[in-house]
Specification:
By secondary structure, this protein is of the alpha+beta class. The chain contains three helices and four strands. It is elongated.
Length: about 140
């Protein structure tokens, strides 16, 4: 049975409001970080999720173990209130870190390929210049 849960933690980081969306699918947590700018209210966050959730790029996932236990509604309400005060979990930090590392490796590889292409282009240009000079043009 597929069990999916999503949570959003919004916090102020230096000069921007950041939202961390955590998605748990079958015990695997993946996260994405979104920058909001000004402080979003509940309505704006809800609209943002409705409009852009399908475009979120959830990175690699980290396995988690969560016990599913039905709670008393009042206790559940207290737990929700308590979770609103908490910052995002270390598991989501790990997932974001993993995603960032993959992006970093990909970017490094692309930069090295571009550097090699530029080097090759300059070498060919230099060779062409030498040939033209040798011909007397």
């Amino acid at each position: 049975m597929n069990r999916v849960s999503i949570s959003c933690n919004i916090f102020f980081d230096n000069s921007f409001w950041i939202g961390v969306f955590e998605r748990v699918v079958d015990g695997k947590l993946s996260a994405v970080k979104v920058t909001f700018g000004k402080e979003p209210n509940d309505k704006e966050v809800y609209e943002y999720i409705n409009n852009y959730y399908t475009k979120f790029n959830f990175g690699s996932s980290v396995t988690t173990k969560k016990k599913v236990k039905i709670k008393n509604p009042k206790r559940l309400q207290r737990a929700v209130k308590k979770s609103c005060d908490k910052t995002f979990s270390s598991k989501s930090q790990q997932a974001l870190k993993l995603q960032f590392e993959e992006y970093k490796k990909e970017r490094k590889k692309n930069c090295s390929i571009q550097r090699e292409e530029r080097k090759k282009y300059l070498f060919e240009l230099k060779q062409l210049k030498r040939k033209r000079k040798h011909r007397g043009k």
